[in-house]
Every structure is written in C-alpha cells, then in structure tokens.
Amino acid sequence: MTKIAFDIGGTFLKSAIVESEFNLKGYQKLPTPVNENDAILHEILRRVEAYVHTFHLNEVWIGISTAGAVNQAEGTIVYANDNILNYSGTHFKQALRRCASHVNVYNDVDAALLGELSYRKQSLESVFCLTL
C-alpha cells in the first residue's frame, strides 16, 4: 500500500508520496488552479496517475487535507468560501475511487491536529489546535 497526500489551499496545491517515518517522495507544490470545470479535481487525478506511472504503484491510499467544511464520511466539500471558487459540492471519494482503494478527506485544521497526534509518542488526556 502506498499513501499519497494532498494539501489543497486557496494559494497552493501540494502533494507527495508519504513513506514510512514520514519521508516524502515526489513532492510537488504548484499554485492552486482556478477551479473552473472541476480543475482542482482534474489536477489531483492527473497527479495520482503520474505518481502511479512514475513510481510503479499498485495499491494506493489517498489522504486529502483541504480548506473548507468537509463531510468526512462522504468525502465531499460541504462549504468553501470564495478563496476556492466552485469548490462546494466537490466529491473526492466518488471521483478518486477508480484509482485508489481508500480516500480520506479532512479539513486542513483537523488534518494538522491528526498529524501532530500521530507523531506524538505519549498519550494525552485532551488536546487543542489553533491555526491562523
């Protein structure tokens, strides 16, 4: 299984293969495309296909960290402000199921906290995350 991570923001769209010990392979950082005709979704599909071809990947799991309100169960963008046009309603799980066996979509702040928690070795009774 190979994990591919995407971070979708109003300014940049970043991606990489995440290897053990959190090492990144094939890192890319490009301006987020103007989201006309599902341009963001098409760019993600293009990058997944390029990673699969370049690195000869078989089973792919995709993790998406994104701006906006996310329905994690459905893998959809429920609401996004005008920083990313035409983004509300984007259905990542449905669109990516043909090229990935698992797709997880999280709000970027939730993803930041999950990343911190997965890196920590000690247990915590409670936790708080603030981003600006």
What does this structure look like?
The protein is of the alpha/beta class and 132 residues long. Helices cover 26% and strands 32% of the residues. It contains three helices and seven strands; from the N terminus they run βββαβββαβα. The protein has helices at 39-55, 92-96, 108-119; strands at residues 2-8, 12-18, 24-31, 60-66, 69-71, 76-79, 102-107. Strands 3-2-1-4-7 form a five-stranded mixed beta sheet. The protein has a two-stranded antiparallel sheet with strand order 5-6. The model has no long low-confidence stretch (mean pLDDT 93).
Structural features:
alpha/beta; two-stranded antiparallel sheet; 5-stranded mixed beta sheet; 3 helices; single chain; 132 residues
In summary, what is this structure?
The chain is of the alpha/beta class and 132 residues long.
Low-confidence stretches: none
For the largest beta-sheet, the strand count, sense and barrel status come to: 5 strands, mixed
Quickly count the helices.
3
Query: Which of globular, elongated, flat, extended, rod-shaped describes the shape?
Result: globular
The overall average pLDDT, rounded, is 93
Helix percentage range: 25-40%
β-strand amount: 25-35%
Please compute the radius of gyration using only Cα atoms. 15 Å
N to C succession of SSEs? EEEHEEEHEH
Strand arrangement in the largest pleated sheet: 3-2-1-4-7
Care to count the β-strands? 7
Could you give the distance between the termini? 34 Å
- The class by helix and strand makeup works out as alpha/beta
